[in-house]
Amino acid sequence: MKLRKVTAVSATVFALALTATACGGDKNDDGGSSGGSKKITIGIKFDQPGLGQKTPNGYSGFDVDIATYVAKKLGYDENQIEWKESKSADRETMLQRGDVEFIAATYSITPQREEKVDFAGPYLLAHQDVLVRADDDSIKSPEDLNSKNLCSVTGSTSAQNVKNDLAPKANLQKYPTYSACLNGLQNGAIDALTTDDSILAGYASQSQFKGKFKLAGFKMTNENYGIGVKKGSDLKAKINEALEAMVADGSWQKAVDANFGPANYKNEPAPKVGDVKS
Amino acid sequence: MFDFLQDYDLLGAFWTTVQLTVLSAVGSLIWGTMLAAMRVGPVPLMRGFGTAYVNIVRNIPLTVIILFTSLGLNQTLNITMGAKDFETINFRLAVLGLILYTAAFVCEALRSGINTVPVGQAEAARAIGLSFSQVLRLVVLPQAFRSSVVPLANVLIALTKNTTVAAAIGVAEAALVMKEMIENEAQLLLIAGVIAFGFVVLTLPTGLILGWVGKKVAVKR
Amino acid sequence: MSSVLYDAQGPRAKRRNILFNVLFLVALAAVLWWVFSALDEKGQLDWVKWEPFFTGTEAWTTYIWPGLQNTLLAAALSVVIALPLGAVLGIARLSDHAWVRVPVGVVVEFFRSIPVLVLMIFGLALFSEYSNVSSDDRPLYAVVTGLVLYNASVLAEIVRAGILALPKGQAEGAMAIGLRKGQVMRLILLPQAVTTMLPAIVSQLVVIVKDTALGGAVLTFSELLSAANTMSSYYGANTIASFTVVAAIFIAINFALTSFASWLERRLRRAKKSSGAVLKADDSQIAGAAGTGTGGSI
């Protein structure tokens, strides 16, 4: 009987304590968005090695280097940058709402997107391509993807492009992440992974995959990577200036070498600002 | 106002939800009953396996289990579930994942049903010389099933809702179509209302009918 | 351990038992061996895939710990909001006034019959269109909203069942000594009901912790499961290894919670007189009564 009382009391106290904390339980929004005068928030990818990847030593990749350089030209030091993950589907919304100042996250310039946001650049010309196992010689043209297991990520248009135009009989698998596709490619469950060659090169150059995968080199589309800013923002002109300066002083090439060099990725020369290849 | 609904295969999506539910329900009832039998049976190793299975599986998020069926079973162990194209494979893998997960709860619901069977029933059955499997099959389980209709109905309702997790491996059921619709259309509240209505239609009658059945078949003591 | 379901074993039954044990062991070992050899053949057991988790703390501090923090934060917030809300709803559903009882009943049944994932997707869209919650917090808000709406309704049912399970005499006696309705609930019914409900409530916590993973898989909430995704892209697509580690963490957390729940239950059961002969009395009756499935909610 005594025990029961004790339990009941402690339970009531427990419940009360929870009720009490509930009042202050709502996470107060201490404004992560604009962060005062001396911070700049930039959207990048967190899970694309070679372009934008969260690593134990901070963030690394080509997009990150571009963004860092641009931020410096805008007057922000490296330690004044706040990186934010911007998944593909969220990018327009994040810009429109002002969650980030600009986005450098494998962001291809397209007419549909230009209706919602403005683009500076382009700063890189990539192409849709496929990644295959290094010892697989059966895929020589996009048409060879028919009857092959093709992988891409959910919400990506690249796989649908291939299926609609080039290889209608391709067996399409969609995973939430590229890693899952790569794992399948390594296992043999997937024959080809399709997306931008720059992204593929980043994965292929990881030390764990040395010599295991190769790019097929199909150049199926042109992907003009731009830096997304809010519609009508005056940042566009400033970022364009910064990008021109980056190419002129050789930093652009340095960033390319540092990030794509190990991948043996034959990138296109630096595109002229405003020169969007369709 | 409802025009945009024609662009989406909403009925097809809910039909997929129903298929996922029915197939997984049958599978998990069978596997769950086997697990329950193992857990109350005389073979120590099976008892241990049953206990371990239930304790591990019910503590893992269903999402992880579903992803495992795709990444582990399909990719690595080459289990294709007798299908060739990924759409069918993913659907069948989702059913398998739902069975593996739900069976743990079916097992627990049945075990609680077994607990409600009076000791005298089993003792009398043994006294007339029935073996363990006969005691279970002829005396205990029939009564246990009758008294676990309501907990089992709750598992079934939970299963219906859990089929939405199949969206994680791209099975085009109701939740995935809802996500697609929200990304492309502006009528958020309408979309949410339609999907919610669909699930209410699926789950509410299940609860009511099985609740009534449960009362009807309950062993009066 | 003896059971009433089978006789004490004689020599023949013992022999048969050993045979079954061996056969089952062989079958189990065969399956395990098949799995391991397949994993090994596909290079999934390569040290390079597992190394990040065992050498150094990088993987833990960069990916897993921040993810786990978000998982626990979302779960804790949901519990803290859902528990009092559920209690209020549960009590309101027992109200004498139909205008309170009926609408609350409809709300509870409605949210119980809709998948949490649908609630979360809806929450995310709602917050991004009609509120100025920053994009950092939006997924968290959406996950918590979904979990609160669903679990508050489930907890409401647990509370209601817990109160209904009390002997009628308790409320009648309390009213007989002149307590008002609020007092009866506050002083007599709730303290007793909370005791019996506690195991079921703790089991519901397991559901909340598990369901946070939905936010990682389908929304963009950076919890443990999505941390596994970021992590596996850095460590060379070690998806299977990453997911295994994440699953192990979930099992550890939830196993601790379920063990706590059954410990509580045993303790409470010992304090009470057993109400009748049952075959094996180690299952929660209250969870069954609450309609959330027994032995852990789903």
Automatic annotation (TrEMBL), chain A:
Keywords: Signal, Transport. Residues 1-22 form the signal peptide. The keyword Lyase does not apply. Residues 39-263 form the Solute-binding protein family 3/N-terminal domain. SMART domains: PBPb (SM00062). Belongs to the bacterial solute-binding protein 3 family. This is Glutamate ABC transporter substrate-binding protein. It comes from Streptomyces tagetis.
UniProtKB/TrEMBL annotation, chain B:
GO terms for biological process: amino acid transport. CDD domains: TM_PBP2. Keywords: Amino-acid transport, Cell membrane, Membrane, Transmembrane, Transmembrane helix, Transport. One of its GO terms (cellular component) is ATP-binding cassette (ABC) transporter complex. The keyword Protein transport does not apply. The chain crosses the membrane at residues 12-37, 49-69, 89-107, 188-213. Residues 14-210 form the ABC transmembrane type-1 domain. It is found in: Cell membrane. It comes from the Bacteria. InterPro entries: AA_ABC_transptr_permease_3TM (IPR010065), ArtM/GltK/GlnP/TcyL/YhdX-like (IPR043429), MetI-like (IPR000515), MetI-like_sf (IPR035906). It holds the Pfam family BPD_transp_1. Belongs to the binding-protein-dependent transport system permease family. HisMQ subfamily. This is Amino acid ABC transporter permease.
TrEMBL record, chain C:
The chain crosses the membrane at residues 18-36, 72-92, 104-128, 140-166, 187-209, 240-264. Its main location: membrane. The keyword Transport applies. Signal peptide: none annotated. GO terms for molecular function: transmembrane transporter activity. Keywords: Cell membrane, Membrane, Transmembrane, Transmembrane helix, Transport. It is found in: Cell membrane. InterPro entries: AA_ABC_transptr_permease_3TM, ArtM/GltK/GlnP/TcyL/YhdX-like, MetI-like, MetI-like_sf. CDD domains: TM_PBP2. It holds the Pfam family BPD_transp_1. It is a multi-pass membrane protein. Residues 68-261 form the ABC transmembrane type-1 domain. The keyword Transmembrane helix applies. PANTHER family: AMINO ACID ABC TRANSPORTER PERMEASE (PTHR30614:SF21), MEMBRANE COMPONENT OF AMINO ACID ABC TRANSPORTER (PTHR30614). Belongs to the binding-protein-dependent transport system permease family. This is Amino acid ABC transporter permease. It comes from Streptomyces tagetis. The lineage of its organism: Bacteria, Bacillati, Actinomycetota, Actinomycetes, Kitasatosporales.
